[in-house]
Fold these 4 entries.
Entry 1:
Amino acid sequence: MNVNTWLEPIVFFLFAGVVLFSAIGIVLTRNIVRAALFLLGTLGGVAGLYFLLMANLLAAIQLIVYAGGTLVLIVFGVMLTSKSPWVRFAPSRSEAAAATTIGLVLFAALAKIVTGIDWTVAAHPADQPATVRQVGNLLLQQYLVPFEVASVLLLVVMIGAAYLARPEN
Amino acid sequence: MLLAIANSFWMPDLDAVVAIGPLWGLAGTIVAIVLAALVLGRSAAVSSVITIIGATLTAWICFTHAPRVAQSAWAGLAPAGGSPMLLVDNFAILFILLICLFLACVTGLWMIGASTNARESAAHLRNGPEFFVLLVGSAFGMALMVSTTNLLMIILAIEMASLPSYAIVGFQKRNRIAAEASLKYVLFGAVTSALMAYGISLLYGFYGTLDVNEIGRLVSTELAATDTPAAAKALISVALFGLMAGIGFKISAVPFHFWCPDVFEGASIEVTTWLSVASKAAGLGLLLRIIAAVLQPLAETFDNPLSTTVAMFAAVTCTVGNLAAFPQTSVKRLLAYSSIAHAGYMLMAGAIIWQAKPGSDVANPAFAALIVYIIVYLFMNLGAFGCTALVYWATGSEKIEAFRGLGRRSPLIAAAMTVCLFSLVGLPPFGGFIAKFYLLMALFKSNLVWLVAVALLNSIFSLYFYSRIAYAMYFADDGKPAFSVPAFGRALVIAAAIVILLTGIPIAGGLIGRANQFASHLYPIAARTTFAEPQAAAAKDPIPLAARSAP
């Protein structure tokens, strides 16, 4: 018996469990830094799911951009803007009610839409050639122009950021 | 084997590299500014001169390109079979030309400000290279916005236009108002960008293509079909709304306009002038491309929800802009709300879907009307902001009170400002009237009579607050001494006023004809699946004579 057939569900439920547990943790915790840590679990778990789907590149990007960049940004944002890193959320009843209502409505709408649509599903991911190679080929051929434009964008933005961050003397 | 791999790779051919010449011009200007700062030292004067030369050169490239693309549009920069990344057609060339001319004007305005030693220019003078790299960078983004129909390029272009704009709004780091304006601009921009990226990812997930034309065709069939599930229709609407949020932010359409008054007030006046015109023109150019792609296939049914939605947005934007301008005391803020109102007028053109007769190349009259409007609007705002800048640099205030007695203190500036203000209202002898006239005619022809009524009512509203400035200039003299303004500044605003007067009557017929010619390419591109067609398009007469006649 192929090892994948019984290992795959176990790993899937492991990662899915991590994602769900951390997501609930984000909502329930009152400590903002702890919420950021739970977010790491969610984002990392999603990266694990991507690995399971053989989307290696997407998983790596998920780890670098979200688990790495975005999370650091959030933590820095908290540290720089609040007086103490141990800020506690204390949502009022009405805020909690509003958030719950919006969340439920959004969830219902998304669930209806996602289940109601015939999404195009590719062949089994494992049969596809390696994604890194494909993406590399696409970046230097079909998407060469956006790739180059992105580099001009980064140059200009870097100059702007360096100017704004530099102390005035 | 390496050679075989190299041969299998797609490389853009020389034609493609030449075709996107205007974009090279702007990108080259950025590189030139950076290199000059390295070699010649950090000099604001050198950077501003390079910017003017680069903008003029790019405008000249556009001129040399215009005859080449007059017969057929070009689209490409992707391997065979892939959807084209960049388009070079009359429409794009015209917008890039306008953006470059305006870039040169704004740089000229900056030079005048620097020569008057205004408080704001200190940061600009010390950090000239950074300022101009960011300014040209945003111009490059706007040029990209009008030359693509690829969703990925649209995201990149909008970011390229926005990110440097945030930085130049907050360029005076010591100024609290500027910093606050910049932060509001960033946060608002980030949210609308996120909405747009979400909408675009939905569209891509749904249709598996990034090409707006392809998506437009698919969307229209889905929306028209009766057996499409309601959930799918809802999803398409959400996705289109997200896409529109990104563009609505750029043109400051209600409800994405909240950043506009604060940013216009907080930024230095050159930057305000730049954002008020260039960012809107590029956003509207992009919007027209998307509307041409998405609405054109729906032309069989004049009364369709998409058109009505755009019309509602336009009517609300216009009314909110004009009503909010009433109580303003700062001329910069007043002009900010006026620019929101004008975005509303221009957005009205987006609601017009035109049923082209089979086999004819007649352009949508809305496109020609909008192009005329944008050209006139460019000069009206250049003149109005130019006059405000001159008054501000001379008196240190941008309140309406600063304009008191301007008719005596500086008669030429007051005259130029009056021309711009009444043209903004849309009164007859000026260009603004012609622009509004063509727009209203196009609306009328498309059975959008209620929108004509909204536009007319709004014009009457707007007469009140524009005349408040005119009243202050001529009838509320508080006896302050006369002042002189730099000769170059006077020349700039008077030139703008003269252009407004010229577009008002004698050459207006020619203007709409040219605009029609420029607009005529939008539909052939919208109807095209591959870019192998230019030869076929070149064979037939590009614009039938009938299309040139003014409405």
Entry 2:
Amino acid sequence: MTDTLVNWGLIPFLKIALLLNVILGVVAYLTLLERKVIAFMQVRLGPRRVGPHGLLQPIADVLKLMIKEDIVPAKSDHLIFALAPAITLAPAIIAFAVIPFSGTPAPLTLFGHTWSITPWVTDINVALLYLLAVSSIGVFGIVLGGWASNSKYPLLGALRSAAQMVSYEVPLGLSVVGVLILAGTASLTGIVQAQERAGIWFFGPQIVGLFLYFVAGVAETNRAPFDLAEAETELVAGFHTEYTGMKFAVFFLAEYMNMIVVAAIVTTLFFGGWLPITFGLGWVIPALPGILSLQFLGPWGMFFAGIFWFSLKCFFVLFMYLWLRATYPRYRYDQLMRIGWKVLIPLALGNVVVTAIALTVYRSLKG
Amino acid sequence: MFQTTEMEINLGPQHPSTHGVLRVLLKVDGERILESKPVIGYLHRGCEKLGETRPMPQVVVYTDRMDYVAAFAGNLTYIEAVERLIGLEAPPRAKYMRVVLAELQRIASHLLWLGTHALDIGAMSVFLYCFREREMILDLFEGYCGARLTLNAVRIGGQLNDFPDGWVDEARRFLNAFPKQVEEYETLLSQNRIWIERTRGVGVISAEEAIDWGLSGPPLRGSGVAWDIRKSNPYAAYADLSFDVPVGENGDTYDRYLVRMEEMRQARRLALEALDKMPGGDVRAKVPKRLKPPAGAEVYHATESPRGEMGVYLKSDGSETAYRCRFRSPSFVNLQALPALVKGHLIADIVTLIGSIDIVLGCVDR
């Protein structure tokens, strides 16, 4: 009885609490990273006032947002106005539930019992579908927020965002089909294990899928060059023009969490999740992957090595996000729609067909 | 049961990309603009009336504050108009100095335009790169006259004073390094698919329309009309210097962009040539203590400011104060093309087009 309670109640609860705090910290420092990286790309220094090299800037930002006055427009729909940020944030948070941060469960002995700690909150066999389903809920918050503000610029931003996210949902879903065909499972741990077994990460055979997923993911998270919903120079601040203080912060938080979710999925599906980076030397030195994932330190070593490799790959994907933002101008609404429907979707469909045929041919050749 | 209605949007006067206090009333159907009406006057300070109530040497500071992005162009136009009115000529060295400063000002102004225009379209980095170089030009200005933005460096009958020691070397160093910087901006934009899609075919002005509207400067040349006051009615020392007038073909935003980029290169060439050919001698002619223009004399003097034809009309009643002072500002005239340009485009395009016309509200409202 106690075992069941601990296994299904206490441990997941503690893991969720820990994960939530870590993710919030990562989001806070992702904003600093973004400002620093873009600043260096633009021959500036970025924040430097709060703490050494501006390291305490995120904390100052959060404090500032918390003590700001919470302005609610008089003619807005007060309930929905307050609810919208929460609707945007919730799916971003729960998406983390299925992401495997590392591959090996580690045993923890406490009070004479040994518990197996898995480096994911839950591992369900339809994880990928779950992620697609969850990520499409986020748009409701944006649309409702823009609508409830009862203001023109937010309304335009919300409409843009609705059209954009609905359009890009399709290539986003189609682009992962190739990975599903190759892995034969929708469980994220299963997909990484399939890449380990195949000895090649799926970004090789699925380079088109990776490209499609990343582009659609950038569009889905409303980031540059697809940041039409909050195009500062056109729509002032887009859907969150009327939001202040913590309500605005929650929208902001959701956007950055979604970025991390996309980065985590790209890492898991295409870059071998927690597997160590060996630059192909694994073929030459068979022991190298084992060494790099700290096998000699036992399960806990592998546990943390997996998290390290996973974070490193996520970081590179997030860096791509920031790089894009510093480089590209913004697409226009009609061009964005055209790319989504006329370029990405046909490409994604073609990718599915080609992958399926290639795999069938490969298997029949192999016998 | 369902019906669609047009929405009216008020763009400005406080909006991130109206480049000052321009207000545009938009009537939109979804994202498509059906009608637009620019509303101006938020920065009206009555420069023309002030020009009729103060002695002419005192009016120069108001010309600084009209086109505050290219203050030197305003100074130069007014001073040269006054010089023509009283029949005075600046010494040759001063004329060459005016060319150097005017062309540096043109580069600075175009850099600010490029940065904000790119920022409007969403490319943030270009903005900061442009400001890096603009800062160097402002430092040069500061080194010459102490002011960075509102220079007020031209005097009736010449220049305030000669270039200080080492200034010419600094200016040469900047100008020699500058082409590489322009290339850097171009690598980010000229071949960028998104940039091309956002600007090509947007806001097309045909050559006839451009002339009918009285456009001047890059918007006119972008439509393929090679008309540049520096060539057609040379002032300062432009008659002795060689430069090309870049023109566009299609008259769209992309062509206006290319024209301005090439103008920056030509401005550099002009400034370098003027530095090379610069004669010695005084920088200021003998100017009477009290200016006495002949009564009834009138003059219209126009120069090619970075934004187009900057004109000053002065009429004298024989006193030190002009009887009538009128400024023809290029931004004001060019802005009138906006409603026709944005018609049928999307909301995102209006900020592109405001940037493409390159208005300065101080210059529009005077």
Entry 3:
Amino acid sequence: MDISVINPILLVAALMGAATPILLAATGELVVERAGVLNLGVEGMMIIGAICGFAVAVETGSPLTGFVAAAIGGAALSLVFAFLTQVTLANQVASGLALTLFGLGLSALLGQSYVGVKPPKFDDLDLGALGEIPVLGPILFSHDIVLYFALALVAAVWLVLRFTRFGLLLRAVGENHDAAHALGYKVVRLRVLAIMFGGACAGVGGAYISLVRVPQWTEGMTAGVGWIALALVVFASWKPWRVLLGAYLFGGITQLQLNLQGAGVAIPVEYLAMSPYLITILVLVILSADKSAAPASLGRSFHASN
Amino acid sequence: MMRLEKRPQASQGFAYATPLLAVAATFFFGGLLFAALGKDPVEAIATIFWQPLFGEFAFYYRPQLLVKGAPLVLIAVGLSLGFKAGIWNIGAEGQYIVGAICGAAVGLACYPAQSALIFPAMVLAGALGGWLWAMIPAVLKVRFGTNEILVSLMLVYVAEQLLASMSLGLLKNPEGYGFPGSRNLQQYPSAHNAELIAGTGMHWGVVAALIAVIFAYVLLARHRLGFAIRVTGEAPRAARFSGVRPVRLVLFCLGTSGALAGLAGLFEVAGPAGQISIDFNVGYGFTAIIVAFLGRLHPIGIVLAGLLMALTYIGGDIAQSQMGLPAAAIQVFQGMLLFFLLAFDLLTHFRLRLGRTEAV
């Protein structure tokens, strides 16, 4: 075993990549949950995004078009969830599970002819001299545009939730939908918008796995990232910047265990591969004591007649 | 204009009708899906739902109905208890795997001794393994308030890695020429969960499933604990006033569903599957969630739903080999069924009114 083959600078640079799918999905889910909706279908929307993005990128030869398609695919699937929970008032937990089961099946069906295909290469941004700064260059300035987009998205979500009227409305709907309704705001419309935003983010996150991280299409390739993203929102106490922190923590663990596998550490591969899930549980345990930050209407159905 | 009006009481009629409506809608949209894949929809549906029961080779497929249905029913009955009380164990797949590993490990440890006690010991170990795996989310929820949905699901991925590790390492067949996977329990009479009546598909797992169904029925209809489960799901506040202890309920519901999932895993590994291997689990733990909902969380309903789902598995296999229908299409079909069920459930609690709203 030789741990010295792990280069800390490359590790940090790579963990940003590993964190991006979780970060995108968790940011989307954060907005959904702040609007008072619990969508457990993140995993399903991610895998649909992964295949939509992959297929479109292969067909058009443009990864960016793929990412747009992934956002559309994720949002389209989330509309099914929106219909079930907002229009037919179905149980949100059950509907989210259904979305994940359906998404996994549908993605496998759509992806049949894409197994073993190589997607077009998605280049890192060329930031010129910035990328050549020692240490900071490889860490901060040698990534692809979607990674920066994810960071910008966290900032944007924070700004909107905190400083805009729309963000205030969204939070009001999530905290007390009856009061928001009584004041004349469209609870269902806002929630559907939030759910679609969450779907689009999850879709892009999924496509980041199939187009950048792996890059390849295999069935069930998201392997629980969507669920980790859900845990991350709890971990972050529904605050955007903490989502960023948490995503990097998980990205770091994922990347480190991959590197340890590569370095041939004496721990069997299977036990290393368990670690992200075990650490998710551990973090959930440590942070579950405080639930005060949860939106008050989270997971409750709203109908004007009640 | 169409609008919804809340029913003063949930409609009994629709509660029974919605699963049927959902199945009908799934047939229709599933047919469209098959047509979109370039297959004749009528032929596809007939292949999936008619051939296993009444086709030429039905004598071969009918026993499969019990083989595939038993684990689904066994798991779903356990899950339904928790779902009724708002306790969400969605990690049955993991408990199923761990139950199979523990049970098989006991059997393999005794190899090649022959004794009538080995199989019962394996059954116990299987149930215990599933129970312990489910106790992790249960204890964490009770002690720290951790979300049981996320923890039980995370443990599925952990269990899958454990399964891989076991079939490549500890439980690997020493005489298997280096291939992954354990010894085949079907060739070890003391540990083999054989058919009780040859050619019927009836093995101990089917018996266990029937016993579980009867127990669940009696529990929910006649026992105080069943009452506590129902009240907690329908009116948590009222439940607390009536003296229900939520901690006990969480431990009981998660523990029971885990033990039943573990049992299902053990009966599968000692019977139809025969050995611990990397791809031992085929998603029964997740399909059982659909079964539980489709059966309206009612033990008898779950039996019917379990048989229907088993039928889609068997028919799906036939359609795959005869018509080239992709396996994933069946998964989509099953997912659709749950969607339609959830959507139609609206009619149980609400009335659709046509026409304009009267001024209040």
Entry 4:
Amino acid sequence: MSATSPSRSAVFSMLQLRGGWALVRGLWLSWLQYRSFFFLLAFGWMIPPLIAMLVWMAAAGDGSLQGLNRANLAAYYLALILVNQVTYAQTNWTVGDLIRTGELNRVLLRPIPPLYDALASEFAGKVVYLVFDLPVVAVLAMILRPEMHWTLPGLLAFLPALVFAWALRFLWGYWLALLAFWTTRADALLGLQDTLVFLLAGQVAPLALLPPTMQYIAHLLPFRYMLAFPVEVLSGQMDTRQMFTGFAMQLAWLLFSALLTLLCWRLGVRRYTAVGG
Amino acid sequence: MTQSLINVHNLTKTYRVPVRPAGLWAAARSLLHPTYEDVPAVRQVSFSIQPGEMVGLIGPNGAGKTTMLKMLCGLLHPSAGEASVAGFIPWQRQPAYLRSISMLMGNKSQMLWDIPPLDSLRVLGEIYAVPPVELRRKLDELIELLEMQELLNKPVRNLSLGERMKCELAGGLLYSPQVLFLDEPTLGLDVSMQIRLRRYLAECNQRTGVTVLLTSHYMADVMALCRRVILIHHGQVLYDGELNGLAHKMAPFKLLRVTLRVEDFQGQALPADLPNGVELIEQQAGILTLRAPRALAAAATACLLQSLPVADLSVEDPAIEAVIDQVYQAGAV
């Protein structure tokens, strides 16, 4: 490190990570008071993919559907359950309330970036959900005997695909939630996002089982890249070209939602602080 | 002027409020053709506050006090005018600025609802980057002063309003801010806690030189803490100066309190030669209270002593609450 570059503690202080970490700790302390609520929430999110898995496993019978047998379908859906919990941005449901009730004042008065509030909630949430999910998925795996054809490139590419999927799902929901600066009920748009993720992101069915037109639409829209893409990367269903195209689409949508988030935040806060909170 | 910590120049805030008549039809029509009205909340307000001053911002409900505080702490953009606090433009909300101020408002809670206040206070200490040793010292000081020992281990949601206010205050003072904006700081506190808090704020001000801008509907807060008051009404400054001078400026009259000798009191009328402008405002069991313009107070006193069986007579300035009530009701000086 050169003498002119900032030291690690300077970077730490510049990014005000100490404050961000304190927010995470505060949330964990709060959530420990009603942990069963979070476990029930995580259980609720697990149900739709579990039902879809059982339906498709029954449909496959002893044969296969588009090359996926019962064990492949079990593996696909168990991976999808975990990826769904990691990428689901529950924080976005609270952003509209912060804006409507004026609670955003508390966030705006803190000497740390306001986005930290949402990021801390996301990070704290993931840890709590995974404490519940990992044992449940492990038990299901023992019962269902999943089979997945791992490949090294697939395994290596899974982690970035997962991180980008979370970032995309979070930022896409965040900019929608920020519309609460203008309309009082932006939550409906988050509900619509969930529905589209259910239909087009491999939950109701693996994309390979959808009709060709639906598959085409799913590959164009951002929702596949929030959930199905990392699972497909992990299960080695794609060749190198498909994987690169997938990453390019995922990053393009991520960049687009980051820009929309920035725009909505800048204009929204300006509006919020102009009309009073 | 350049040494002032808070400089406000022609600060103006106008809210654009949607208006529509009542009824479903009007509601439907307003979807297509919304109409708005400009509501001025703060109008060309200018003042400056020196470091270490404690200033009371007073005025009736809706006068613009909270709008003023929200602009100064950076939560509101003004419609026009300028302000600087501690060298920063508040509404740019730079982290260094936010670390140097504390804004305590009734509807803003820094405490996390489900956990004991001590945990919340520690989280706040981290957010404001208070060094660990300093954080421990400050926490001990505040806990003792605000008598919070018994509250520390209960979840915030189980605390009473006054107890929560104590926690908010501790949170607001934890990082030793340079400027304190206090919106109704004693709301919900019992009388002895109010007194202790005022004493602590005064001590804090003397010891650390913290500058305080305070709004309160309890004049006792203002009288105990602020030598200077800024009275705003309808968004404009009506008075800016010493609290003691407020009565003189805003209420140009004196109160004459006359106790009559009961055995000689026949229920007679006021003397006919009492100067014009002097009026009887209260009469109870041989005690009369009259209001006289300052210039006529001496003549009125002489006249009363001559004409009535006076046992005792005092000439007083009206109580500050009465003066302010008069201003609030009249809406002008």
